[in-house]
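How a chain folds remains the central question behind the approach discussed here. This step matters because it turns folding into a mapping between discrete strings. The sequence in question and its structure tokens are set out directly beneath this paragraph.
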Amino acid sequence: MERRVVVGAIKKIILDIKEKCIIKNTAIRDSIFDILENECTVIYYPLENEKNRGFHIKKIVKNELKDFVYINTAKPIAEQIFAAAHEFGHIWEVADKVWKILGYEGKPTEKEEEDITDWFAAELLMPTDEFRNAFFAHMDELGIKAGKVKLDEIVRVMVLQMKDFMVPYESVRRRLEETDIMQKEAADYLLSKQEEALELVTIFIKDSNTYLGNGTCVKTVSGIRTLIEYAESKEDVDRYLLMKIKKEFDIADMPIAEEDFEIHIGENSNE
């Protein structure tokens, strides 16, 4: 399975997905959460000691197969975003689509499916042309010449890329090789210097006003407020259970509006 050939198929699939899901932003960033929620039920919950950033499962609900995705909100927001894009790829069965487009026999192995879905997430969040253009623009801004560079110089540019696309350091490191900005030897060297590089990442992120490296620790389920409000309008609902759910997911009560007002929206709204 050659990555370049697979990515060619992935780009075609992304164009189709963007058209069907009406995705117009080039840099999707944290909009991926809204995009994902339109496709499935998303559970956001912080698990501090869990390595997993997220996962996707299918469950039968009222005789219908439904998609569910979990996002670990204890992880930095950049990792949550990449996890959401990855699970979005599973929902769209990108690996199977790639297999079909390329005319491969059978089905992809579990590892092949994960690799393809990672490449999909990377291309969705960091489109090749936009990633390359942004990288070289940052090089110019910082006065860094192509060729022999210092570790702190390349990491400084990588942090700017992390902020541009809201993705983790490791995703940017891999993307540098995937987009032909950097040769494999240089990307491998960065990997061998990961401890020093991550220390620099922490320093540069602290120097800027960004929450990129922070977890959100959000506790919610997509659409939960609407469901709670609907349940509260019913008389035969267990109020204690509702109270427990609201407490567990930090669902605050809405303030009571004292009066209604009219709002006219449209071409003649001022008439």
Observations:
- The CA atoms of residues 161 and 192 lie 20 Å apart.
- The chain has two domains: 3-125, 128-206.
- The beta strands are 41-45, 54-61, 64-72, 220-221.
- The longest helix spans residues 3-20.
